[in-house]
Amino acid sequence: MSQQGEYHADMMAEFLRGSGGAAVIDGGLATELEANGADLKDALWSARCLFTCPDLIRKVHLDYLEAGASVLITGSYQATIQGFLSKGFSQEESESFLRRSVELACEARAIYLEKCSNGSDEAKDVTKYRKRPILIAASVGSYGAYLADGSEYSGDYGNEGTLEFLKNFHLRRLQVLAEAGPDVIVFETIPNKIETQAYVELLEECKLRIPAWFGFTSKDGVNVVSGDSLIECASIADSCKEVAAVGINCTPPRFIHELVLSIRKVTSKPILIYPNSGESYDPIRKEWVECSGISNEDFVSYVKKWHEAGASLIGGCCRTSPDTIRGISKALHGV
Ligand SMILES: C[S+](C)CC[C@H](N)C(=O)O
Ligand SMILES: N[C@@H](CCS)C(=O)O
Ligand SMILES: [Zn+2]
């Protein structure tokens, strides 16, 4: 393994050791922003909150820490320079929103850790306040997220989906997010092989000096949503020394066990999973079809099996909440 690869692997091993062998990722950020009254019916979706209600983003991060999360994923999933420019913001403003997404999560962590050690009565509630290692993961949503038409769930980018186009699309955003000081970059809801390749090439060219995590999305439990082979996508991620964890996000819980077993065949890196509730998304109405998902209790009942199958970073994606995270934390750590 290269020196950089070893450094990232050591950092992950230390984080997982400090997390009792398995770490809890947070739950749906957009979901919880919406539950707190934010309006996401916009092409920027949750990224809109970076300028309409940044304090709410910080509050939701804090709620997830109090629920037991040890990884906060930033509000930059649908935050792109191109998306902000098309709303009339300048390049400078667009870059500052990206930086803000990381700062808000860092601020929530600092507030939380201060509360853990300030000796107040509130801090004595060990179900909410436990000093522990906490990572800030800067979210990079796929090109399909920017398109705002749900194409992160199809991976169908038409003629624009070339390697060069995708690399150009993500380059500056990735640099700005990395410079804002997160612990990790997390590429979320990756729908196809070409975007996987684009991310890996960018990571190899950019030398960000922080590890990257890859989360693929599947709708059949076998392949990624485009129909490209998950095994091939996960192998491409595994081959990159900058990649420190590989896994699945925003995918129905019923598919996760098989997907973890498949990924384990092609990587020895830590496996992350943060499924959605299993509901389907209507990208035109920007609403979830509620009757199609599972309950928190059913979601949490899977957690131990996912861990036994090889997942060591476990959380929730869209339509999961602090209650889901409390359940995951209890299942893994008893609190
Ligand atoms: C992960 S999906 C629910 C995010 C929202 C989507 N890109 C949209 O703009 O409708
Ligand atoms: N990380 C995003 C969703 C990715 S599908 C969020 O939680 O809102
Ligand atoms: Zn999601």
UniProtKB/TrEMBL annotation:
> Per the record, what are the reactions this protein catalyses?
S-methyl-L-methionine + L-homocysteine = 2 L-methionine + H(+)
One GO molecular-function entry: S-adenosylmethionine-homocysteine S-methyltransferase activity
Q: Does the keyword Hydrolase apply?
A: no
Q: Which PROSITE patterns match?
A: HCY (PS50970)
Positions in coiled-coil regions: none
Which keywords does this Swiss-Prot/TrEMBL entry list?
Amino-acid biosynthesis, Metal-binding, Methionine biosynthesis, Methyltransferase, Transferase, Zinc
Broadest EC class? transferase
Give binding positions for Zn(2+).
Answer: 250, 317-318
Per the database record, which ranges form the Hcy-binding domain? 11-332
Cofactors that this protein relies on: Zn(2+)
> Alphabetically, which GO biological process terms does the record hold?
methionine biosynthetic process; methylation; S-methylmethionine cycle
So what EC number does this one have? 2.1.1.10
Oligomer and partners:
Monomer.
Q: Which NCBIfam families match?
A: PRK09485.1
What does the UniProt function comment say about this protein? Answer: Catalyzes methyl transfer from S-methylmethionine (SMM) to adenosyl-L-homocysteine (AdoMet). SMM degradation (by HMT-1, HMT-2, HMT-3 and HMT-4) and biosynthesis (by MMT1) constitute the SMM cycle in plants, which is probably required to achieve short term control of AdoMet level.
Q: What is this protein called?
A: homocysteine S-methyltransferase
Source species taxonomy: Eukaryota, Viridiplantae, Streptophyta, Embryophyta, Tracheophyta
